[in-house]
């Protein structure tokens, strides 16, 4: 082919690296050596062939003379000799033609091929190599690229384009929440764009490795809009904030799937941004989430991080989750047909050494309870190292330099946004960019905040079952998703796979092109007892347990009880949870009981020996209406805490006196009136004094 660069379009990074390896082994530095050898061998072969034939002819002639001298009975030997002679000559001619052809091919090639990959995850300095000028008479540039080279860049010197007609696309299942990669046909628009890359500076040629029949039958007209391939939670939240309630009927330019809209609404309900009880209207939390340029999940994590005094750490985690996994993977996977791909034992050993080195380098960052905390540790080390030697640091620690730079930039952006938001509040505060190693308490809090942002991404360990026999495997597990019947698996690269915890929360569920099973990314171990507090919209509570019975908590000033919570549509039973006794008559019965027992107001304990009945009968079926009369005033005025009771006594000092007297022996009635209301005068007057002081100031 005439000189000129070649641009080859492949579907993904793994395919690009494999093809680059093949091209380099065939036409890279090896090509120049091969050409020299071919040229030398060509001259040498011509002379040798001539000499070899002459020698063989002489030997044959001598053999003929010998045969003649030996007599006529040796005719058979003559035939064999002629057959050998014919065989030698034919083989020499074939070899000569083949080697001459090979030599001719190499002589027509440029002396050197420069094979370069180009894809988005390639470090910037390696991406820029494709723009370096090369002499087309001396070097043929071969760029193997993804669709990144379709429209966004123009590579100089490209004359030939080879289009595989395939593209690797990231898909999102709005029903299961699974992200997966799929290799499919490019769109016709993309194919035309690829063809246009040939001959931008001179006449060019495009080679399409697919038939016109496939092009007409299988290639879509245009690439699917991005709104179809990603969650649209932020779109739904923005529309709700603008007062658009009927999102399904909104005239989108590219109408998203109805499942995507419904999933977006459900997600916002789960994280508390929409109120299901109020016709899915936006909540105050939802309005606060609008201010952040990230997904609502991440925005909620940022808000919770401020409350937990670990905002710099959460900013780093959110930045990392928004950009992606910062760790490098060791190149493309080794294909199954190793022999055909030329994967030898030496290369396998080198790969093993690299894996060992990577484990040693990243071991200090590992966290047995969260992959995301490992990412956080890597970000902290990257920031501590400084930006001057950032690329070198990333290379030596198996980090993706481009991803780390994006995380660094997003951290700065989010920090500035937070500082602007908090500067206009009643309590101005400043978020520091400096990252200090989190304490153990902060690590637990970070895991809880991650769980709060992904309350619908909880998975529970279940045993792996043989589909044929129904037998459970001993040491094989999978994880069932909370909201669907889908199952996922822990990635072997995650340290959490070693412990196989009961409950996890995950960032992404991904199914690669080659993998047969979906696997989790960004896994964090959680305590199931956290879910009732963090995932309230997904929790259903049982009736209050009788054992242990409800108790009054003086610190919370509430009647607390134990319940059995269940999580999600699969109704996973969680550990017993303590919560405030739900409103209703039962709540006031227990409040009256503990009031009579002197637990809520200790000053009433002096009347315990003179009670005419045990107060615990109030929490059972009460038939005596006079005894139960203490409950009704509490219901009427909604008195279910000590604070509310004292506030009522401030306004009405005789409140409950008459009904309480029913429970006390008559000889103590005078004493009861003397101490009523049974609280210290200072406590009774405290609120009144505060009001006076406030009035004086104003």
TrEMBL record:
GO cellular component, one term: nucleolus
Keywords of the record: ATP-binding, Helicase, Hydrolase, Nucleotide-binding
Sequence segments annotated as region (Disordered): 32-106, 332-362
ATP-binding among keywords: yes
Alphabetical list of SUPFAM superfamilies matching this protein: P-loop containing nucleoside triphosphate hydrolases
Signal peptide start-end: none
Single GO MF descriptor: hydrolase activity
Source superkingdom: Eukaryota
Biological-process GO terms, alphabetical: maturation of SSU-rRNA from tricistronic rRNA transcript (SSU-rRNA, 5.8S rRNA, LSU-rRNA)
Ranges annotated as biased composition (Acidic residues): 89-99, 334-347
Residue ranges with Basic and acidic residues bias: 32-70, 77-88
Domain Helicase C-terminal, chain residue ranges per copy: 78-243
Name of the protein this chain belongs to: Helicase C-terminal domain-containing protein
Source organism per UniProt: Arcella intermedia
Organism lineage: Eukaryota, Amoebozoa, Tubulinea, Elardia, Arcellinida
């Amino acid at each position: 082919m005439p000189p000129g660069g070649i641009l080859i379009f492949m579907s993904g990074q793994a395919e690009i690296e494999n093809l680059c390896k093949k091209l380099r082994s065939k036409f890279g530095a090896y090509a120049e050596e091969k050409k020299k050898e071919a040229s030398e061998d060509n001259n040498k072969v011509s002379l040798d062939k001539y000499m070899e034939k002459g020698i063989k002819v002489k030997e044959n002639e001598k053999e003929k003379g010998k045969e003649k001298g030996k007599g006529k009975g040796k005719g058979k030997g003559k035939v064999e000799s002629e057959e050998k002679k014919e065989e030698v000559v034919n083989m020499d001619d074939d070899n000569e033609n083949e080697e001459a052809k090979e030599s001719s091919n190499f002589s027509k090639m440029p002396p050197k091929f420069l094979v370069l990959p180009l894809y988005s995850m390639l470090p910037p300095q390696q991406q820029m190599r494709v723009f370096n000028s090369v002499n087309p008479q001396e070097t043929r540039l071969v760029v193997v690229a993804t669709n990144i080279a379709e429209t966004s860049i123009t590579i100089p010197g490209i004359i030939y384009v080879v289009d595989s007609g395939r593209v690797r696309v990231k898909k999102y299942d709005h029903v299961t929440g699974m992200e997966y990669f799929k290799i499919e046909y490019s769109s016709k628009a993309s194919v035309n764009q690829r063809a246009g890359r040939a001959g931008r500076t001179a006449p060019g040629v495009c080679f399409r490795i697919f038939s016109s029949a496939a092009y007409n039958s299988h290639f879509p007209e245009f690439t699917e809009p991005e709104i179809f391939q990603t969650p649209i939670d932020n779109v739904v939240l923005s529309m709700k904030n603008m007062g658009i309630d009927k999102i399904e009927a909104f005239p989108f330019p590219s109408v998203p799937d109805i499942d995507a809209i419904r999933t977006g609404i459900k997600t916002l309900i789960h994280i508390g941004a929409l109120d299901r009880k109020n016709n899915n209207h936006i909540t105050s939390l939802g309005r606060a989430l609008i201010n952040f340029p990230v997904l609502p999940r991440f925005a909620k994590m940022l808000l919770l991080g401020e409350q937990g005094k670990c905002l710099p750490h959460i900013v780093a985690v959110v930045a990392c989750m928004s950009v992606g996994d910062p760790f490098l993977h060791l190149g493309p996977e080794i294909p199954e047909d190793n022999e055909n791909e030329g994967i030898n034992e030496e290369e396998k050993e080198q790969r093993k050494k690299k894996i060992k080195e990577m484990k040693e380098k990243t071991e200090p960052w590992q966290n047995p309870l969260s992959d995301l905390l490992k990412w956080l540790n890597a970000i902290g080390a990257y920031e501590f190292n400084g930006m001057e030697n950032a690329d070198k640091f990333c290379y030596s620690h198996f980090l993706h330099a481009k991803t780390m730079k994006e995380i660094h930039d997003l951290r700065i952006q989010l920090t500035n946004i937070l500082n602007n938001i908090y500067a206009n509040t009643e309590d101005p505060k400043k978020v520091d960019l400096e990252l200090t190693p989190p304490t153990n308490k902060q690590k637990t809090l970070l895991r809880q905040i991650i769980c709060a942002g992904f309350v619908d991404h909880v998975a529970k360990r279940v045993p792996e079952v043989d589909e044929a026999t129904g037998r459970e495997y001993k040491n094989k597990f999978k994880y069932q998703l909370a909201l669907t019947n889908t199952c996922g698996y822990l990635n072997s690269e995650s340290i959490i796979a070693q412990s196989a915890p009961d409950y996890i929360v995950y960032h992404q569920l991904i199914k690669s092109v080659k993998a047969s099973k979906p696997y989790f990314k960004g896994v964090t171990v959680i305590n199931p007892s956290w879910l009732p507090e963090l995932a309230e919209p997904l929790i259903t509570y049982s009736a209050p347990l009788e054992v242990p019975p409800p108790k009054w908590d003086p610190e919370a000033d509430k009647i607390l009880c134990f319940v059995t919570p269940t999580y999600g549509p699969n109704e996973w039973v969680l550990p017993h949870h303590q919560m405030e006794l739900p409103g209703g008559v039962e709540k006031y019965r227990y409040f009256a009981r503990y009031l009579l027992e002197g637990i809520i107001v200790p000053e009433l304990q002096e009347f315990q020996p003179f009670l005419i009945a045990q107060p615990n009968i109030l929490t059972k079926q009460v038939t005596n209406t006079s005894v139960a009369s203490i409950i009704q005033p509490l219901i009427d005025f909604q008195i279910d805490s000590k604070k509310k009771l004292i506030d009522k006594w401030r306004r009405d000092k005789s409140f409950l006196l008459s009904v309480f007297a029913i429970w006390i022996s008559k000889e103590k009635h005078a004493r009861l009136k003397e101490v009523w209301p049974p609280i210290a005068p200072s406590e009774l007057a405290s609120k009144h004094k505060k009001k006076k002081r406030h009035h004086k100031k104003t």
